[in-house]
């Protein structure tokens, strides 16, 4: 693994292993870990990895769709004693052979990969942008699972600040490494939380997708940059900081409900300087993010009496282009529009991509701000009792 040029946090140690079918596994240990550096080998007898999927082009939009049928066989909401992301036991030979703080491994049923090169792999961005009928390419790339904790249930919000910092370090280092792999055009860390979102495992975890193309959402951002100019992200941040939709503002990061929010709960977070991805963040920026991001998600959970389903998406600049004007950006979205109601994407949104908001962004921001304050007060009271 080439980590030249990457600024790693002191105290967070890494241990590299290989699973029984050849997949990479990396343990990231907290600075105050009590775990031994010795880790068990994966002694399972595993089937060969599924063949790499293929992707097909939609000639009407130019978008590429990966057809990864092997994912139909993945585990669906197993009981805690059969959690495939828990540390392995004789009764549950899981994906992670030893106890851990944070663990990252290649997905057993990937949407992209495991092949990184192939005769029918994309030949470059210009070739992918061409339009034709019946066009297919191999879905080269890499998909990884990031286990936030050995616990069976939870989310990023349930982590300690120390553990949150270790997860952020894993995102940064894996972004750096994955960006160097052949054929990778964009790296995307994210967390799906809650069955309403479609989560198939309750274990606290996220994923990292490494795409062989620039995603449609980022292509739209590039088009906006070409129309507006390279200062778009800086100007958006300045405009949002001057508005009344700011949720949290620190030395290095600001979280806000965006001016044109689509979802009932939607919060974006931007760094205060131009950073293309996690790998480019400073240690101070990662340290503050561990506090502020955790605080934001705990506040979103405090809006209602039960945890909030969400998608937490870390948008990063493409690997080879627009590094100086696309800024690392968090977008947290939830379909929850009331305690017991969800916003479903119906005709206008799902079919036409034309969104209709159910609440003003200013009202949403006030509610989320109040929830963050309640969560912080509850945490302070809990610490005082401890």
Outline the structure in words.
- The structure is a single chain.
- With 386 residues, the protein is of the alpha+beta class.
- It has two domains: 213 residues, HIT family, subunit A, CATH 3.30.428.10; 172 residues, HIT family, subunit A.
- The protein is built from seven helices and 16 strands.
- An eleven-stranded antiparallel sheet has the order 1-2-5-7-9-8-13-14-12-11-10, with helices on both faces. A three-stranded antiparallel sheet has the order 4-3-6, with no helix packed on it. Strands 15-16 form a two-stranded antiparallel sheet.
- It is globular, with a radius of gyration of 21 Å.
- The mean pLDDT is 95.
